[in-house]
Write a sequence for this structure.
């Protein structure tokens, strides 16, 4: 999707620029039907991924855990649930552009064109708010709007992403 220089919700720069890759499809059942999952279920499914499109899944439950792993270099290139800036291009709590080639921006391009519908249900991000009673950011791919949902509710799609350091 492009280059990303992550900055966490506290304005801390990770210090590395990454190339961003989106999975070729949403997490799906054995019949290739996209799974509708609660956030907690999606975390478990991503963690179980083994050699999925060549890479294992990670166990980052929140955006804070992901940014921490990127900062301390413990992240090893596996699939994760993306933060809101990779889905919609804006940082958590901000409305300034953070990532130009976010998934919403390319949903009708190339191979993604066949996988998104304007009436698609909400898609999960890992941007987590414990202060709001355990909510995560979700994004509606029809309208481009995002909001918060409780982490235990079901009915959301998940498209994992992964990153590699840019040279």
């Amino acid at each position: 999707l492009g280059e990303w220089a992550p900055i966490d919700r506290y304005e801390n720069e990770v210090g590395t620029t990454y190339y961003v890759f989106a999975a070729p499809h949403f997490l799906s059942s054995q019949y290739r039907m996209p799974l509708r999952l609660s956030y907690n279920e999606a975390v478990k499914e991503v963690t179980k991924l083994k050699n999925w499109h060549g890479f294992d899944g990670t166990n980052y439950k929140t955006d804070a855990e992901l940014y921490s792993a990127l900062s301390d270099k413990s992240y090893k290139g596996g699939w994760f649930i993306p933060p809101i800036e990779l889905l919609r291009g804006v940082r958590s709590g901000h409305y300034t552009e953070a990532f130009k080639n976010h998934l919403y921006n390319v949903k009708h391009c190339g191979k993604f064109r066949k996988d998104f519908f304007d009436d698609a249900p909400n898609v999960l991000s890992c941007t987590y708010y414990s202060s709001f009673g355990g909510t995560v950011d979700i994004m509606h791919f029809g309208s481009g709007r995002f909001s918060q949902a409780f982490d235990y509710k079901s009915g959301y799609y998940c498209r994992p992403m992964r990153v590699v350091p840019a040279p």
